[in-house]
From TrEMBL, chain A:
<protein>
    <submittedName>
        <fullName>ABC transporter substrate-binding protein</fullName>
    </submittedName>
</protein>
<dbReference type="InterPro" id="IPR028081">
    <property type="entry name" value="Leu-bd"/>
</dbReference>
<comment type="similarity">
    <text>Belongs to the leucine-binding protein family.</text>
</comment>
<keyword id="KW-0732">Signal</keyword>
<feature type="domain" description="Leucine-binding protein">
    <location>
        <begin position="33"/>
        <end position="371"/>
    </location>
</feature>
<keyword id="KW-0813">Transport</keyword>
<keyword id="KW-0029">Amino-acid transport</keyword>
<dbReference type="Pfam" id="PF13458">
    <property type="entry name" value="Peripla_BP_6"/>
</dbReference>
<feature type="signal peptide">
    <location>
        <begin position="1"/>
        <end position="26"/>
    </location>
</feature>
From TrEMBL, chain B:
<keyword id="KW-0472">Membrane</keyword>
<dbReference type="InterPro" id="IPR001851">
    <property type="entry name" value="ABC_transp_permease"/>
</dbReference>
<feature type="transmembrane region" description="Helical">
    <location>
        <begin position="165"/>
        <end position="185"/>
    </location>
</feature>
<feature type="transmembrane region" description="Helical">
    <location>
        <begin position="284"/>
        <end position="303"/>
    </location>
</feature>
<feature type="transmembrane region" description="Helical">
    <location>
        <begin position="117"/>
        <end position="139"/>
    </location>
</feature>
<dbReference type="InterPro" id="IPR043428">
    <property type="entry name" value="LivM-like"/>
</dbReference>
<keyword id="KW-1003">Cell membrane</keyword>
<feature type="transmembrane region" description="Helical">
    <location>
        <begin position="215"/>
        <end position="240"/>
    </location>
</feature>
<keyword id="KW-1133">Transmembrane helix</keyword>
Length: 407, 333
């Protein structure tokens, strides 16, 4: 018995020495531009990204090929189940085995960081639309990444400064008690105070939480004009629902969501969500081109309208294809991204914009307020655009991010 | 289950085990030619995790519902020590494993005082405490996790930055862990453990310090779960909250059940089935969870002993039919 186990041990040890040669690096483009939509297909973020993002990517390819001659372009998709190891596994397999050239979308910041790192290692392209982490263009920035649609810094600052400008001077924060919530609260509080507002108090709730009543009552009792919800996902939905039960908005206080999507409003219903104020990068009912896109999108997606994340996927894929065509090759990821940064962006959904050296895509944002039920005229007619945040002030200044690519 | 242990304790069973294991390792040595190495590494990490879990439930009869705390926390520790403190790869893995062992000792001392569902609940509660600690502690990076953990050369010599070379390291770690478990099961210690599983009161009456045996088994299981977690952190170069959630504790139960609880190779098969399914079905989106649920239901309904358990049972029934009539019939299960 002993000799046998020793033999096995020796075998394994010998194996250690054999396998030291690494993988050969990626080959030249294989004649196909392969786009991988990696997002949540089944969980919390499936509505705001999911199959809708796949549709958006395919639509971008279709529109691109209508406008000019194009070679073979394939779109594949995968579910990262919001788990970084699954997402990283899919990304590695796509790059190593299935010759995917570019990954797009990818909500959930932990997955986005993992994919960002792998993309850099393999010299491919990562266009993030779904994740909010502003560190993607800060300490984790990469020459292979463009962060397209929004980030938490932009949403917190946009919502914070626009509401203070409108007269919402005193704030009370309802914060999820973990790193993400703290960061959101800190960023928003900083801009509120800079604009001359005042933070009168804050309460931290456990993450995840079901019962917000005691926290909401404290917020109500604070008499602050604005209650900032420094949380996300189910916590935001639950706190808004329960705030509606306490009649907080009807009582004259304003709810400011720091990370809210139109699908959240849809899930809550206008009766519950009315008066909620937050920042969007894109809203379907703002131009004819957007409305036409939304109509087509809804027809293909069970009547759901596109979110800013899905619109961002369209816009990102479109610009990527333009850059690849200008370059004539998709083989070198860093070169493609450099080309994307060099060319100004212009597409029917996001209009004109630019991409900064740190990989941040720059465009206008808008502050929206959720309509009252009687103001809504049709399906998904949810937002009133109350202010536009010009591109120049919408995103974190280049020097403050701490990105190593910025000299 | 009774017959499994009786049979496995015999010399023939052991030889069969080792031959199967040798074939398995030989197959795994050439597997990267056909299968993507990162997927294989993931399977191996989870297989070791499930084997460690199986040591506790399959042989000790202790259902822990908090094994993710050892798996996930060891991943954090090895990730942090390698990335921030600049530990070498082998030291990082050792650090993660050692911390898991210490955590296992603390959790074990508290949990083994209770039996059955109370034991499971105590481990679950402790695992949730570890989860909230990981959520709040600044060193874990919150929900972003620890990312970009470097793959430094092993012992300063062997380059493991390539997936293929790392695969053989992971295979060696897995083989070592598996042999430790196999040795434990077939040692006198393992015999006592099985005796405790079958009838704790009788083991006490025979003069065994039952609590001490359970504690040692618990710590050993936690240590190996930690080894699996620390290795996984290295493979994916990240450590995240997913690995410490209670869902992960549930997933390892699922792997063990699908493969065959209380069989030596069951957890490996179970881990392979679940991991491969999660990876290949990613293109099917929301159907992954449905498929996973269906497979679980089918396993429970159709072959309750698990895949390997069922194969073993069939083989044994054949063997029993061949043997002379009048012998003691094998227990059905």
């Amino acid at each position: 018995m002993k000799t046998k186990s020793m033999l096995l041990g020796g075998l394994a040890a010998a194996a250690l020495c054999v396998g030291t040669t690494g993988h050969a690096s990626a080959q030249m483009s294989d004649g196909v531009i392969k786009i991988g939509v990696l997002n949540d297909q089944s969980g919390t973020y499936a509505d705001l990204s999911g199959q809708g993002s796949v549709f958006a990517a395919r639509k971008a390819v279709e529109d691109f090929c209508k406008a000019q001659k194009c070679e073979k372009i394939e779109v594949v998709f995968g579910d990262h189940q919001n788990k970084p190891d699954i997402g990283a596994g899919v990304a590695r397999r796509w790059y190593d085995v299935e010759q995917v050239d570019m990954i797009v979308d990818t909500p959930t910041s932990s997955v986005a960081f993992a994919v960002n790192q792998i993309t850099r290692e393999k010299n491919k392209v990562f266009l993030n639309s779904g994740a909010g982490a502003s560190d993607l263009t800060g300490s984790a920035c990469s020459p292979n990444l463009v962060h397209w649609t929004y980030d938490t810094w932009a949403l917190a600052h946009g919502t914070g400064s626009a509401i203070v400008k409108q007269g919402g001077k005193s704030w009370y924060f309802l914060t999820a008690d973990y790193a993400f919530g703290h960061a959101l609260e800190r960023d928003t509080a900083a801009v509120v105070e800079k604009m001359g507002g005042k933070v009168v108090g804050k309460v931290r709730h456990p993450f995840p939480a079901q019962d917000f009543s005691s926290f909401l009552l404290q917020a109500q009792a604070s008499k602050a004009q604005v209650i900032g919800l420094a949380n996300a996902g189910a916590d935001t939905i639950n706190s808004i629902k329960q705030a509606s039960e306490f009649g907080i908005v009807q009582g004259g206080q304003k709810l400011a969501g720091l990370l809210v999507f139109i699908t959240d409003v849809h899930a809550l219903g206008l009766k519950t969500a009315q008066g909620l104020t937050f920042t969007e990068a894109w809203y379907w009912d703002t131009s004819d081109a957007n409305r036409a896109f939304a109509k087509e999108f809804a027809a293909a997606n069970k009547g759901n309208y596109p979110t800013m994340v899905q619109a961002g996927v369209y816009s990102a894929v479109m610009h990527y294809l333009k850059a690849v065509h200008a370059l004539g090759s998709d083989a070198d990821g860093a070169k493609v991204v450099a080309k994307m940064k060099e060319m100004p962006t212009d597409d029917k959904l996001f209009g004109k914009g630019t991409i900064r050296a740190d990989g941040r895509k720059i465009h206008d944002l808008m502050l929206v307020e959720v309509k009252k039920p009687e103001e809504s005229k049709g399906p998904w007619d949810y937002h009133k655009v109350v202010a536009t945040i010009p591109a120049a002030e919408a995103f974190r200044p280049l020097a403050e991010g701490g990105c190593a690519l910025v000299k | 289950m009774t017959s499994t242990s009786r049979r496995a304790s015999g010399g023939a069973g052991r030889n069969v085990d080792l031959i199967v294991f040798a074939v398995l390792v030989a197959a795994l040595l050439v597997a990267p030619l056909a299968v993507y190495p990162v997927l294989l590494m993931k399977v191996l990490c989870f297989a070791l995790f499930a084997c460690a879990f199986n040591l506790l439930i399959g042989y000790g009869g202790l259902l822990s519902f908090g094994h993710a705390m050892f798996f996930g926390f060891a991943a954090y520790v090895s990730g942090y020590t390698v990335k921030t403190w600049g530990f070498s790869t082998e030291l990082g893995i050792l650090a993660g494993t050692a911390v898991a062992a210490a955590l296992g000792l603390v959790a074990g001392v508290i949990a083994i005082r209770r039996q059955g569902i109370y034991f499971a609940m105590v481990t679950l509660a402790l695992a949730q405490m570890v989860f909230f600690f990981c959520l709040q502690a600044p060193f874990t990076g919150g929900e972003d996790g620890i990312q970009a953990i470097p793959r430094r050369p092993l012992f300063g010599l062997v380059d493991i930055s390539g997936d293929l070379s790392l695969y053989y390291v992971v295979l060696a770690i897995f083989a070592a862990g598996f042999l430790i478990i196999w040795r434990t099961i077939h040692s006198p210690f393992g015999q006592v453990l099985k005796a405790i599983r079958e009838n704790e009161a009788r083991a006490v009456s025979l003069g065994y310090a039952v609590d001490r045996f359970k504690l040692i088994a618990f710590v050993l299981s936690a240590t190996l779960a930690g080894l699996a977690g620390a290795t996984k952190a290295l493979v994916f170069q990240l450590a995240s909250l997913t690995d410490v959630t209670w869902q992960m504790s549930g997933e390892v139960v699922l792997m063990t059940l699908v493969g065959g609880m209380g069989t030596v190779f069951g957890p490996i098969v179970g881990a392979a089935v679940i991991v491969v399914m999660q990876n290949t079905f990613t293109g099917f989106g929301e159907w992954v969870l449905v498929a996973q649920g269906c497979i679980f239901v089918l396993t429970v309904l159709l072959f309750r002993r698990g895949i390997v358990g069922e194969i073993v049972a069939i083989a044994r029934r054949r063997a029993a039919a061949g043997e002379a009539v009048g012998r003691e019939a094998p227990a059905g299960g």
